[in-house]
Amino acid sequence: MSQSEMPLDLPEKKDVTEPLPTKPEEARLRRPVRNQVEMILRDLDSLVSEDHPVRAIWEFLQRLDLTGFYTSIRAVLDRPGRPASDPQVLLGLWVYATVDGVGSARRLDRLCQEHDVYRWLCGGVPVNYHTLADFRTAHQAALDKLLTEIVAALMSQKLVTLKRVAQDGVRVRAGAGTSSFRRRDSLEQCLAEAEEQVKRLSEERDHPDPKASLGEQAAQERAARERAERIQAALRQLPAVQAAKERQQRSKSRELRGKISEARASTTDAEARVMKMSDGGWRPAYNVQLATDVDSGVIVGAAVINQSNDSGQAEVMETQVAERGGVHPESYLIDGSYAQRETITTLTQRRVEVYAPVRPPRTKTSGRERSSPRWDDTAEVVAWRQRMETEEAKTLYRLRAATAEWANAQLRHHGLGRFTVRGLSKVFNVVLLAAIAHNLLRWLALR
Predict the structure, then answer these.
(1) Which helix (H) or strand (E) holds 122?
(2) 323 within some domain
(3) Predicted pLDDT of residue 254
(4) d(CA 53, CA 97)
(5) Nearest CA to 292 among 386, 409, 379, 195?
(6) Is residue 15 one of the residues assigned to a domain?
(7) Phi, psi at residue 192, to the nearest 5°?
(8) CATH number of the domain where residue 410 is located
(9) Domain that holds residue 110
(10) What is the domain count for the chain?
(11) Ranges under pLDDT 50 in the chain
């Protein structure tokens, strides 16, 4: 047997057993120690990177004239009084919170204590949710002027030209429930109950409940008084709601006309109206109107109404755009809900070229084409009908959806999905803040 054919001596097999699972108390681990005292030398400025968008937003706000936000401050130099929180800080907090999709003052208050970016914006300035909420609702004129200044600044940098402007409306859910809408009889009954509660709580002030604190009793009385005021506001809104129902009924065709239902108003938000939403449902909402520069995507006009239709809003918004920018737009892109013949005539007389879809004939037996003038058409309407039949006008009109509806979607992304405030005035303030935040983001993208 040759050496290559000899059998190899293999090692004997050992009995290998699996190790037992490690118990938690036997494992050697690095465990958290939270009571260890540490000394961390770090300033607020180092918490935010140099290229963070919040720095650019703060820098842009420093360039603007914010005098209107300081006029209500009563604490001045060389006089007694507690220093007020800097309005520029409060404005910066709300602008960045809007960019971040935060619409609640209480949530923003928590972020100012927990989030480094918001703490950087505060810079040690004390804030609370009362201060933040009051600031948002108390400076409508200053916010409106600020939006104008931003548009003017972007126009001076040639970033906004107002060559083409698109307008569209978006219905945003109001901060009221559907069940809060009541008819006059029900409102009067609720008002009587609320006034009785206010009277009872005011009488109990002399004989307070020992189980409740003075603060709790004052809060109960204030809540009852505010409920009575909201019901009174709802009663005052009923004539306007009834008139709107009658106008809507008259605008319907003779076959669709019927009995007008009794007007109802909300005891939560008296100025909200039930509107048909994009999903086909009917809910309390406000109609937010936005005008957007087509070339830059900058919002150059904003308004809030509580009527569901857009009739007559194009002339109002175009006037606002001209006032903010100093010039009338060359072209104005609107959808069919704005395209009344009176609107087209008015805008054309302002030397604004209107682009809107031409509605088809009322009946198939009329024999009229869409471009065929009616007997009562003005010269401006006839020119509009003929213009919209050209391929150039059809191509240009396609920019409306890509601009106006895109701006609506951006504002929804920034938290404009449902209003957390009540009343047209406060809702308009929220829309102004959303438009300002949107424009600052556009400035960062375009500069």
Answers:
(1) helix 116-122
(2) yes
(3) 54
(4) 12
(5) 409
(6) no
(7) -60, -40
(8) 3.30.420
(9) 44-74+84-138
(10) 3
(11) 256
